Amino acid sequence: MTFTVLDPTNEPVETTFEKAPRPESLKGLRLGLIDNGKKNSDYLVKKIGGRLRSLYGLSGDHLVRKPSPSHAIPPDMAEALAGKVDLVVAGIGD
Amino acid sequence: MNPALLSHRIEVENVEQVVETFYQKGWTDGLPVVPPTEEKVLAFLGAAGLAPDEILGAIPERNRVFTAEKVAINAVMAGCLPEYFPVVVAAVRGISRPEFGLHGVCASTAGSAILMVVNGPVAGAIGLNNGQNLMGPGNRANATMGRALRLVLYNLAGREFDRSTLGHPGKYTYCISENETGSWAPLHVMRGLEKETSAVTLFAAEGPNQVQNHVALKPENILNTIADRMRSLGSFNMGGDCECAVIICPEHYETLIRDGWTKEGVRKFLYENACRPLADLKRGGLNESPIEPGDEETMVRAVSSSDHILLVMAGGGAGRFSACMPGWFSRHMSKAVTEPVGVTCSGGT
User: Fold this and answer.
1) Which chain B residue lies closest to A14 (C-alpha atoms)?
2) How far B191 CA lies from chain A's nearest CA (Å)?
3) Residues B142, B291 share a domain
4) What is the pTM (predicted TM-score) of this model?
């Protein structure tokens, strides 16, 4: 005599997205930095930004700070950043 | 005709095989489970009037959704009864509200657990304990509804994201109800609902910090010991801007009420007195600036408003032990939410 039970798990809902086109060269492109809001995150992404600028000839260092580390960047903040830079680095600090 | 359930079926020979199979698949919190049969799951869905595919909530950051069917399966596994299920449903809807910040709450190294406080008529109707041994063990409704919420997170939210350094026992179950027999307004009323509405309040919290004061006869002295517990340098209440839950035990309540203290008055006192000098924060490195003249006199509060204290009266009739449960990280990442039970409303994001 057998009986059946139900699987209690789920799977992530599949979503699709398109990657932004990759530049052939980084030279002269405008760099944006996203500070996720945790302590020292600004220090980390600024350090990375400085290193990338010196290595690849990037320009600018437009920095934004997310209001919450565990939430995605707000759409209006992302759109404003996208209008000012060509690529971004997002970092985490702790 | 019963609605069709969509979950994968597993054929087993006996209950022991269910328990061992679920262990092997990593589907339990470390304790044995009740076999989630189709019959039981349908009974749960029926008790809450839900279709299996109804979405109760989600963690958008992980592309995970919580359907009524999957939540019911996990509630059966936890040992719930069908009549508990509307409360579990409300809890899942509540934690899915954007302001609760569920992804951070159950991914953080800080290891908070989700405190459930059930208020209103449903609490008595399903036998929730608000008295002796408040946080257990020993009461089915408290133990299994809190466990159900954890199993939902474990099996449906992506347990691989839980990076808690220490965790805490409340991550097995952390569900209480309030003693509403006194003259104080219950928690859900303080948060804007009618007394006759049933509701569950969800709060990402540390474990209970017990406050012992067997000797004080003056309300202010009792409250001072609670305020002292709330201002621990090692909690996020001092290092951030969090809410804090406070449980007043019945004996402390009797002392307070005898002198006319209301919940509003208690919250105001705790707000004003749960504080410590800025210099202490600097000595602990929570603020890395050098200590300056005036820092010993500049006070930093554990909560930034008396509204950020979730005040509950509960616990056994004997003993002068209250408690506080500091919050997780920051109100800007997670706020306590109160969700009515039995009301259909959008919970997902």
Assistant:
1) B63
2) 24
3) no
4) 0.93
